[in-house]
Design a protein that fits this description.
Elements lengths: L1 E6 L2 E3 L5 E9 L6 E7 L6 E7 L4 E3 L7 E6 L4 E6 L8 E8 L6 E3 L3 E5 L2
Parallel strand pairs: 2-11
Antiparallel strand pairs: 1-3, 3-8, 4-5, 4-9, 5-6, 7-8, 9-10, 9-11
Length: 117
């Protein structure tokens, strides 16, 4: 079993920054992909960014140039640096991980990010 624990959410003013962290623990040999999704009230969960074990990264168009994803493979941890935050970034952010191309998805419990003045 794998557990994902997120931290770093909170309330920030428009234009501000936050850094989310997600640490994976449990029976882990390697992690194929780690990423962040978000879900705003009344909307579907959407991919924000993900990073593969060899370093390939992709971002949602809405966050390109503002968010940066990174991972520390030795610590099984993924980070999301969020800059120039906008009110529309308000959502619950979920960490996601998959151990291989055919494994199930693992999810964190979610962390609230609120961007408001």
């Amino acid at each position: 079993q794998v557990q994902l624990v997120e931290s770093g959410g909170g309330l920030v003013q428009p234009g501000g920054s936050l850094r989310l962290s997600c640490a994976a623990s449990g029976t882990i040999f390697s992690i194929y992909v780690m990423g962040w999704y978000r879900q705003a009230p009344g909307k579907q969960r959407e991919l924000v960014a993900h990073i593969f074990s060899l370093g390939t990264i992709s971002y949602a168009d809405s966050v390109k140039g503002r968010f940066t994803i990174s991972r520390d493979n030795a610590k099984n941890t993924v980070y999301l640096q969020m800059n120039s935050l906008k009110p529309e970034d308000t959502a619950v952010y979920y960490c996601n991980a998959r151990m291989s191309t055919i494994s199930r998805d693992y999810w964190g419990q979610g962390t609230q990010v609120t961007v408001s003045s």
